[in-house]
Every structure is written in C-alpha cells, then in structure tokens.
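To the team - flavin-adenine dinucleotide complex, inputs and output below.
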Amino acid sequence: MKFDTVIIGGGLSGLLCGIRLQKAGKKCAIVSAGQSAIHFSSGSFDLLGRLPDGTAVENPLEALSGLNPDHPYSLLGKEKVCRYAEQAPLFLESCGVHVSGEASRNSWRITPTGERKPAWLTLSDFTPLESKEQRIGEKALIVNILGYLDFNTKFLADSFERQGTKCRIVSLKLEEMERLRKNPSEMRSTNIARVMDRDGVWEKAAEQIRQMLEDEDTVVLPAVFGLKDGSVPQSLGKYIGVKTVFVATMPPSVPGIRTQMNLRAEFEKAGGRFFLGDTVTDAKFTADGNVESIGTVNFGDIRLYADNFVLASGSFFSKGLIATPERIYEPVFNIDLDYAQGRDNWFDGNFWNRQNYISFGASAKDGIHASINGETIPNLYVIGSILSGSNTLYEGSGGGIAVITAMAAADAILDGTEHAEYAK
Ligand SMILES: Cc1cc2nc3c(=O)[nH]c(=O)nc-3n(C[C@H](O)[C@H](O)[C@H](O)COP(=O)(O)OP(=O)(O)OC[C@H]3O[C@@H](n4cnc5c(N)ncnc54)[C@H](O)[C@@H]3O)c2cc1C
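Output:
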C-alpha cells in the first residue's frame, strides 16, 4: 500500500499532523496501537508553566529563551514556536476542537484534587481561571453523582474554602444510573457520560441541581458530560442558570476522549486512513538512507510505503520508548535517543521529585528530524512526547510540544507551505 505520508501513532501529535497534511491534499495513513495520552488529559494543553530552574512562567512566549538549547522549542527556534503557538487555537478550531486561552499569558486550570496549574489552551468544557488566586465564586454547590468515586468533592471543597468560597457538597441520584451503581467498578467517567448522553438524562440532572440550589452562585460538577457532543456542558450550565464550573475527574477523561474521537473523525472526513489497534513493528530503508516502508502486525506481509514517515508514538507511557534494565530504545526504527547512561540516573527514588526519564527521548537536531547513528533520515520526522529535551511533567509543556511539533513537521513535509488560513 502506498501513501504520501504514513504516521505512526494516533495521539494528539499524530492526528494533528495527519489532519494538516490531509487537508493540504496529501494522502495519509495513521497506524495507532491503542489509547493515547489524550484519553487521560486534564482538558488543557500546556505550553510552558515552569522553567527548568523552577521559575514560574506567566508569559510562555517570553520565557522560551530560558529553556535549555536541547529543548524541542529551542531546537525549532523561538520564531517558529511563537508563530505556531499563535496559529494553534484557530487550527484546533478548524479540527473541531474548541479551546480558549493565549500563548502570551498562562491561565489556570483546576486539577481533580483542587490544585491550580498553569494552562495554555483549555477545552470549552472548562472555564480557565485568570489567576492562581481567583475564587470560583462566593458560595459553591459541589455536585457529585451518587456512587462516583473518581471525583473527590472533599479535596475540592477544602481547596475552594482555603480561597474563601463557602462550599456545600451534594449528590445527584438518577434512576438511569442505578444499573451502573450495582457494580462500583462500572461507575467510571465514560460509563456515566454514556448514560448522561441518553435522551433527556442530562436535562433531568440539571433540573435536580436547580432544585438543590439554595443561595449558591456557582455549581461545580465533574466533567462527565457530552462524550459525543461537546456543546452539552455549556447547555447544562445554561439550564442550571448559575455559573457552572466543570472540574476534570480522575482518568479516563471524557473531554479528552471526545477530543480524540473528534480529531480522528476530522482526519477521516478529510480522506485519511486511520488503522486503529495495529502496531508498527519494523522499517525498511532505501540505499540512500531514507525510510522505504514499514510493517505492521495486522498487515503482515503487506507493507506500507510512503514518501514521508512521521513517528508520533509517544513516550514510555504509550510504548513509543522501551526501557530494559540496561538500555532505552525506540522499537520501530531504532532511532538515536538522548538519555543518561546508568539506570540509577534515570529516576529519583522519591516519587514526587523531578524524574529524569521523562526528558529522555528521540534526538532531533532541528527539532523534527530523526537520526540513526548520527545520520539524519531525511524523510523520517519525529514529533510529540517521544522527543527528548523537555521534562514535560515538571515544566507543563506536553500539549504545546505535541501541537507545535505536529504543525512544524506537517509544514516541513509540505515544503514549508505557509497555512495562511490559520494565521491571525
Ligand atoms: C497520562 C498523561 C496525561 C497527560 N495529560 C496532559 C494534559 O492534560 N495536558 C498536556 O498539555 N499534556 C498532557 N500530557 C502530556 C502528553 O504527553 C501530551 O500532551 C500529548 O498528548 C502527547 O501526544 P503524543 O501524540 O505525542 O503521544 P501519545 O498521546 O502518547 O500517543 C502516542 C500513540 O502512539 C501509539 N503507538 C506507540 N507505538 C506504536 C507503534 N509501534 N505502532 C502504532 N502505534 C503506536 C500509542 O498507542 C498512542 O496511541 C499527558 C501525558 C500523560 C502520559
């Protein structure tokens, strides 16, 4: 089978790169083994929340110069990062993902435990806060669904009350949820969202909440609404009639899964082929050092040929990188990686400390080209969380790296074509 571009990995970076290429007229295939990090997403894409020396970042674009030279943003260059960061909201919007936020000023998102973390672009389910200290309201009604354990109302109430919001916690009891409640392990966000998606159920929930309201000016709800339809959270808020704040739950993430489904649908609508549940196993190279084809488990002897290949297979979490006691390797192409020698240097025994292994990954001298034994592979691009040089968890930069490197690689494949339609 022959394509213009084959992408390995259908997470945030692979899908965005595929959509951009496919919409520009390239024939693309994405092969993706399974779930991606976006299934576990907070609902916000982070651009840069903290510098490696611990300095908190208010303006990510200004702070770029404080990053190490081997950081994916530094390798791509400030000019490109700023340009793509500014185009990203419109680009995401054009992919059916509705976000708010600015690259030149971090907003704040509320975590499932009530902490506040810096955020760049936030899905329309959520209302980002202007500052870390901003109160969500004077008085909040925190509403859980009876029997749902992945939404910690007590943590949230404690956190909101520390900031001066008076909180009251209540539970919704819906007969439609009773079948799920018989087995506590079924009370997961996605199952709840499926029930809420049934005709009239979220409206019934909204009506119950209205009746439970006393003098509260804010309602806080778990983000378990609108698995199929992203407009449900806003409609629910309107129905309730007071400010309604959705808070991310423990995984899986309903807004994240919806985003993944929307991006896949957008890619396929544009004509792309998405092979889910298949794993790319190996690659063959041409005599001049380009990738010629890849093999997959499901295609067996049938190989996928393309002019360009994009490796978007994620980090350890998604098996884009594999660690053995002795070494770390990338299993498809065996591309060059940057990582510390000696397993003891990979991690800190204190789980809460900054972990080195998170910054290990693919070496890419220009930020997007892979190499093998120091030789750049001209038609092999590498994007997203498989890249080395950033401690995304510590810095809060994972979403930004995925989005920006995806856009950069797609444009490089399109021979540097500028995408005026996304420019402001
Ligand atoms: C649990 C978790 C939560 C996160 N939450 C956030 C957040 O809220 N905000 C934020 O900004 N960042 C977050 N991040 C950072 C995250 O890494 C990026 O935001 C981004 O989603 C990464 O996208 P990606 O496409 O690079 O990789 P991934 O999302 O990891 O996707 C890689 C895909 O490649 C597939 N794959 C791997 N190997 C193969 C193979 N051989 N063949 C075929 N397919 C393969 C995997 O199955 C997977 O679907 C989170 C990371 C993790 C691990």
